[in-house]
Design a protein that fits this description.
Blueprint (H helix, E strand, L loop, with lengths): L1 H22 L4 E7 L13 H11 L3 E7 L4 E7 L5 H10 L11 H5 L9
Antiparallel strand pairs: 1-3, 2-3
Length: 119
């Protein structure tokens, strides 16, 4: 009986340890993407800024992002179980912006306001 109790306690501890380690599994990744931002007021721009914000947050798996127009980068926080970096880059391209090695979609770029295009 004593061995059965010890075995049961050991089993419960093993199960709880496994459950805890699975719960601690990394789900969020952070990536910095080089882009092309020619607008000096992109975050505040009524058309481009709001449009960019809305569409970025609609990308499946993207939790949040930070736009740095001076460094021309987008830092993206995303759930690795729902999306990957290549998918996010393709979606940014569809917004009219370069995303590292993926060039901006030409039709999307033409739809940007003039302030967001290279002069």
């Amino acid at each position: 009986m004593k061995h059965l109790k010890s075995l049961l306690v050991a089993f419960i501890l093993t199960i709880s340890t496994l459950t805890f380690s699975f719960a601690q599994e990394k789900k969020t990744a952070i990536s910095v993407i080089k882009t092309n931002i020619y607008c000096d007021h992109c975050k505040e721009c009524e058309t481009c800024g709001k449009n960019f914000q809305t569409k970025m947050l609609k990308i499946y798996g993207v939790k949040m992002y930070e736009l740095d127009e001076k460094a021309m980068t987008i830092t993206v926080y995303y759930n690795i179980k729902k999306t990957n970096l290549e998918t996010i880059k393709k979606e940014i391209s569809k917004l009219g912006y370069d995303a590292d090695d993926i060039k901006a979609d030409s039709k999307a770029y033409e739809n940007l306001d003039n302030c967001c295009k290279k002069a």
